[in-house]
Amino acid sequence: TVYKGKLLDGHLVAVKLLNTTKGNGQEFINEVASISRTSHVNIVSLLGFCSEGRKRALIYEFMPNGSLELFIHKKDIMNDRPHLSSEELFKIAIGIARGLEYLHRDENFLPKIADFGLSKLCTTKDSIVSMLEARGTIGYIAPEVFCRNVGGVSHKSDVYSYGMMILEMVGGRKNIDVGVSRTSEVYFPHWIYGYVVQDNIEPQLLGLRTRDETKVARKMILVGLWC
């Protein structure tokens, strides 16, 4: 659970309360250690932490614009939120590529990666890692994360997740949407792949206004499918 808070000096922060129902605090130690080793413009800053008995919390910088999801799902976008053009989405995608998993934005729409959870940080030489439990959000995590028969978990699993996020940004919808009018459109990656093969991605297909926007969107689609 994440709460919005304010420090004595007036600075807003995001306070993440950790689940302490299992383990001996190792989850908290792992998360603090992982995040404290990172320093990057596209990674949300860990400002501090609290530990009192079984209560534990992480204090992050506050992202006033909320998450990326609030801006890319067209049917859920509220009138008071700005529409993001294909070029803006492309720039955000570049920022996403510089980090991992969950995104938030600051007031200048600079992508910020947040909520590491128990993300396991590995060196690039560790091509295959062992994970006792599958972690991540269904629809974004690679098959090998939850199905051991597919292969070992590696840095390539993050590439898969990145690709799924890019496709969702371009499509302006969840990659799996059972509420669409045609069954062929339920799984967006498969549906859009058919148009890529036919080289038939037109502006109206994605609700875009110009050929230039469509060109950028097509580039993002290709990257997403490659991932």
UniProtKB/TrEMBL annotation:
Location of this chain's protein in the cell: Membrane
Keyword Phosphoprotein assigned: no
Membrane protein topology class: Single-pass type I membrane protein
Gene3D superfamilies tied to this protein: Phosphorylase Kinase, domain 1, Transferase(Phosphotransferase) domain 1
SUPFAM superfamilies: Protein kinase-like (PK-like)
Record has Manganese as a keyword: no
Keywords: Glycoprotein, Kinase, Membrane, Serine/threonine-protein kinase, Signal, Transferase, Transmembrane, Transmembrane helix
Protein kinase domain ranges (all copies): 1-227
GO molecular function, one term: ATP binding
GO cellular component: membrane
Domain of life: Eukaryota
Residues spanning the membrane: none
Entry protein name: Protein kinase domain-containing protein
Organism this protein belongs to: Gossypium lobatum
Lineage: Eukaryota, Viridiplantae, Streptophyta, Embryophyta, Tracheophyta
